[in-house]
Design goal:
By secondary structure, this protein is mainly alpha-helical. The protein contains ten helices and no strands.
């Protein structure tokens, strides 16, 4: 072998040795990463869920799983600080929770419950505008078709019969998209400019509303979900009842206990939100 080739071989060997010895050095420097921001993000998620999570019952899985992922991120970050986990493991867990938590995902079984409620809604007495109703029907049909993709004779049930295993990930994501579009229009057409107790939508609460609620209870009138929402003025009401009639009557005469905590009559429509967070406004959804 020529001297020139020997020199080249020597340099290549030295280069390989340097590369091999540099790997442990790089691994050893792994403990220089600061994972404080990961702890902070996990705690922020947990705190947010404690504040608003319970207001989104239809997103129960989304919130419970996000909470679990936040705790896992916090744990793996502590493990990394104790030398029991790699920085890559922390980063992977952070990416997982960030993708899941910041992109709300509704399970098909919860979407089915919403679909069941939606197919039973009717536009009694033309309560909703033609534009609102047409949009609602379009979004409702989209969700129904999305859930029916693997079930030709699908009929949505109140408490859910579909399972996540029935759908591919792409199909679940599309169901999720249809769900949020339906919820958005429903909240918009039922919760906007609301005055509790005003079931004839004239902007005031008076004897005419009391009479109409009494007719509904007696089966002499039909209510849309928006009207039921306005008539169900007591916080503990699951359906419109005589108790709600009594509360409205007390409000009309300014009886002192007519305003109940999260119940009674709220005259200021600005107290109500149209966002998906507003669980108390639309408990059945």
């Amino acid at each position: 072998m020529s001297i020139k080739k020997r020199i080249c071989t020597l340099f290549i060997t030295l280069a390989l040795m340097l590369c091999m010895t540099s790997l442990p050095a790089f691994a050893a420097s792994d403990d220089t990463y600061d994972v404080y921001e990961y702890h902070l993000y996990a705690q922020r998620v947990i705190n947010n869920l404690m504040i608003v999570g319970e207001k989104k019952p239809y997103a129960l899985y989304y919130y419970s799983h996000s909470y679990e992922l936040a705790e896992e991120l916090d744990d793996v970050a502590y493990d990394y600080e104790d030398g029991k986990a790699t920085y890559i493991a922390v980063q992977n867990k952070y990416d997982e929770i960030k993708d899941f938590y910041e992109n709300p995902w509704i399970r098909p079984s919860y979407a089915e419950i919403t679909c069941n409620i939606a197919v039973h809604e009717k536009n009694y007495n033309n309560w909703y505008t033609e534009e609102q109703w047409n949009t609602f029907v379009e979004k409702r049909n989209n969700l129904l078709q999305a859930l029916s993709v693997n079930h030709p004779n699908f009929e949505p049930e109140r408490y859910g019969s579909v399972k996540e295993d029935d759908y591919t990930l792409a199909q679940q994501k599309y169901i999720d998209k249809c769900f949020f579009e339906l919820i958005y229009i429903y909240n918009e057409m039922t919760c906007k400019d609301i005055v509790m107790g005003d079931v004839n939508r004239d902007g005031t609460v008076d004897v005419a509303d009391v009479t109409l609620i009494q007719k509904y209870i007696a089966g002499e009138a039909e209510f849309t979900d928006a009207q039921k929402l306005r008539a169900r003025v007591n916080d503990d009401s699951y359906s419109v009842s005589i108790k709600d009639v009594t509360t409205v009557q007390k409000c009309i005469v300014n009886y002192q206990d007519a305003y109940l905590y999260q119940g009674g009559i709220v005259r200021n429509e600005s107290d109500f939100a149209t966002s998906l967070d507003n669980w108390q406004i639309c408990p059945q959804w």
